[in-house]
Amino acid sequence: MAKALSCGAEVVIVDLEDAVAPDRKEYARAATAEFLSAPHETPVHVRIADERDLPSLVGLPGLSGLRVPKVSHASDLHRVASRAPGVALYALLESALAVEHAHTIATAHPAVRGIALGEADLRADLGVRDDAGLDWSRGRVVVAARAAGLAPPAQSVYPDVRDLD
Q1: d(CA 31, CA 37)
Q2: Is the same domain home to 79 and 58?
Q3: Range of the domain at 3
């Protein structure tokens, strides 16, 4: 994580969801809390696995935002916001239902600072294999973010690490 801070990124995202094996969650929470115990020049966001991650993170000086996965309803963000007051929230839309509720999610709470697609899970939910199958969802989320006065969504990660081109 420390190495990531020196690479020139606009924000560093620590992933406690998909990047951590289930039997390593407690270790990852503790290591992340230690990392966030001091502020950093580069903003650091944490992609939580679920609300069990919040007690070890909320209130730490190095935490700049939470990436909330699998948001499908505004109530998902209300629950997180109530347990993480004052922390910026970024909703990840990873299902057809979430895309349908994109604007409602984008305007769910004053702490919401952005929305974006979780494309790997959305692709699985929709049963699409190629990028063209996500075009409408991408456009929908861009429009919802704009209508809510949020910054344009960041593009999802490219998961095919074997594709060097």
Answers
A1: 10
A2: no
A3: 1-63
Percent pLDDT > 70 in the chain is: 100
Task: Using the 3D structure, point to which of 23, 46, 63 is the last residue of a domain.
Answer: 63
pLDDT at residue 164, as a whole number: 82
CB 66 within 8 A of CB 108: no
Can you read off the two tokens belonging to residue 67?
Answer: 């990436």
Residues with Cβ within 8 Å of residue 101, at least 6 apart in sequence: 72, 73, 74
pTM for the model: 0.93
Indicate whether 74 and 130 sit together in one domain. Answer: yes
What is the edge-to-edge ordering of all strands in the sheet holding 12-15? 12-15, 44-47, 65-68, 88-93, 112-117
Q: Over the stretch 117-147, which tens digit does the pLDDT of each residue have?
A: 999 999 999 999 988 999 999 999 999 999 9
Residue 10's Cβ-side half-sphere holds a number of Cα atoms within 13 Å equal to 1
